[in-house]
Write a structure and sequence with these properties.
This protein has 234 residues and is an alpha/beta fold. The chain has helices at residues 33-43, 57-65, 84-90, 114-123, 190-194, 218-233, and strands at 2-6, 27-28, 31-32, 48-53, 72-77, 101-105, 108-110, 128-134, 142-146, 152-157, 166-174, 202-206, 212-214. The protein has a single domain, classed as Spore Coat Polysaccharide Biosynthesis Protein SpsA, Chain A. The protein has six helices and 13 strands. The radius of gyration is 17 Å and the shape is globular. The two termini are 29 Å apart.
Length: 234
Amino acid sequence: MKAFLLAAGLGTRLRPITDTTPKCLVRIGNRTLLDIWLDALAGIGVREVLVNTHHLAPQVRAHLEARPAGQSVRIAHEPSLLGSAGTLVANRDFVDGEDMFLAINADNLTDFDLSTLVEAHRQGDAIATLTLFRTPRPTACGIVSVSAEGRMVGFVEKPAHPPGDLANAGIYAFAPSVLDLVDDPLPRDIGYDLLPRLVDRANAISLGQAYFLDIGTPDALARARDEWPDRRAS
């Protein structure tokens, strides 16, 4: 199985930290977000990962090249950002022949067991499986409506009037055929451009009691650094 780690964003909300450090290399304890994700993927047997780069790309490349051998990491540099869905489409050859792949926003922090998502997708009947969490700020998230059977029956990105508080966690399992739904021209975004087309065609599962935090602001980063060591020790 293969995975995309979407790590090319500018991290504007995290400035001034991201003026000199790419968001994916921000440290939580003694590990970067990128390493936390790569290790989590290795833990469920994902040996091939594609990481896209843009902002401060040489730092990301140097960090990846210094990682221990054992996991193949392809770097896909984007001189102009392609958007999260655009990255998947532009690198479609990476998942040719696969029955499924994972796509993950690398700026989130979670201890969710990714094997739960893989199993749910393989046992399901959909071309995509999303992960969800309950958010206290639904206007800032992609909000998902789900049937009793776990089908995504509605989706709206950052709604002014949210229909609920079930939010997209940015951790996906996709069949490669999903990429046929992404139109030209790029850039294209998973939330704005792909997920609306997956209504009634995707399943959704909850992160449950897993820790989950978007490392989007200095306050969120400080909170993660305070909470994460205790969470990992429990």
